[in-house]
What does this fold into?
Amino acid sequence: MDDAEHPLLAGLTVEQRDAVTTRASPMCIIAGAGSGKTRVLTRRIAWQASHGSADPRRTLAVTFTRRAARELRARLRRLGLNDEVRAGTFHAVALAQLRRHAADSGRRPPRILENAAGLVAELRPKADRAAVADIVNEIGWCRARLVIPEEYPAEARAAGRRPPWGRADRFAQLYADYESAKGRRRVLDFDDVLSRSLELMATEPKHAAAHRWLHQHVLVDEFQDINPLQFALLRSWLGPDSTLVVVGDPDQAIYGWNGADPGLIDAVGEHLPGCAVLHMRTNFRSTPEVLAAAGRLLDRAPQPAVRPPGDEPTVSVCDGSDEAAVLARAVRHRHRPGSRWRRQAVLARTNAQLEPLRRALLRHGIPVAAPTERSLVRKPEIAALLQAWPAGASLASCVAETRRELRGLESATIRPDPTPVEATPETRATVEAFLEFADDHLSLDPDATVAAFRTALRADDRAVAPSDGVDLMTFHAAKGLEWPVVHIVGLEDGFVPIAHARTAPALAEERRLLHVAVTRAEQELHVLWCNRRDLGGDSVDREPSRWLEMIGSSRSADGVESQRTRNLEGVAGARQELKAQRRPAMPR
It folds into this structure.
């Protein structure tokens, strides 16, 4: 068969075909929002398998989330590769590696610290919950950036970071105390899993060689969000016979605050010498109008669109006391009879903004599907299933037994003895979805126990159960998702950009973050901001985000027509401010 007529190339653009068929290694695919990167990744794996240039059983796909790994493996199954490719997050791959090495060496598997916040609270009992969370996050930044305690004051100063616990030297001591406490308890946190894997590759030549042989062909998704620790681990996994493909988009680099280094993709040729770079710009997700707004946000030409033209994005204004009611009316107005509520999403910069909106939507009879409510692990039927599975039992055996019970189910209950679970159609769908996540774990660690699977779930508790409701998410949580209708709320200075973003790199990341939120919309984009809010008990005037006007035309929300003049004046003021204080150019 002529390659041009090969089924794996059907329906691909020229740039997608190049990404699928090019044999260069290392290779970086710059994949713009909605450009079909998962489609290209899976077809590339299948293409190489069909041409004998890569054994799928020796192929590893590293994803940013467990959900992405599951989607990739599901698509590969549809292409005829039945669970041959290993896929998982950096943490999942590294944890499976450590467990395999322990088993081969006759040692106990590593003990994982389940609650880093609890350990920090023990070390600093006077810290409140918010302070503890900030400390844990800052330790995570240090580990991601390979910063040891004694280096912290200088590194924090260079990065423009504010220590979460007093002076930098005080935080450095707390960081050192945390590391010592883990050592005394002989436990690893999830960042230790990566560093121990890196150490293993450096100190155990036979194990390192076996790992590189097993994972000869490596693909890494979301490369723009990789941090120095992950990159060092990735480099250690590569041998002279390895092939490497990384996929990412500099315009969607939004995790610098958490230790990611967008410079790794901005200067990929320096970090991966000889790297070939391909670009995929055509957008299959959004209308030209949405893409025009996204292009204006980054001060560049919009991506080419495949979708036909649609409606212009809308910008509305209201008082903060009316925000929830205005949003509820907008969501209900755009709900089509007989369609699913999950066609719509409400996106905000912070979690704190979402809770009052969630309550308001529920009061108006609009179902909501917040991620915390949809977590599979928190579902009663899944909790019962995990409790019923013995911790030391083979995960593969437990999954197989549960599947047999599902297939043979004729009564009203699923019985993963000793705990019965009510067997409604919804429950069965939830259990089946959960078993697919177990399959993903087994692809990395075929000999895994139930206890090991539980540990991996705690490392990435983003598995969600199917439900129908409007999604409420932060901009960060929405990354990688899409909806026909997207509502962005709170587009005000102080939220977007967030108040603590003061440096040029932080403001650039905030701008990219808004770009990510905008490009989640397939057909309709609606933006709402408030000119007054009750903050800390006081009614405070609010200014529109400096980037608001770039999104679309302004119009007043229903019932607040009297605010139109103030809206337009505010947007005009934001425009003048933007011209007078031109922000640094975005990294390309």
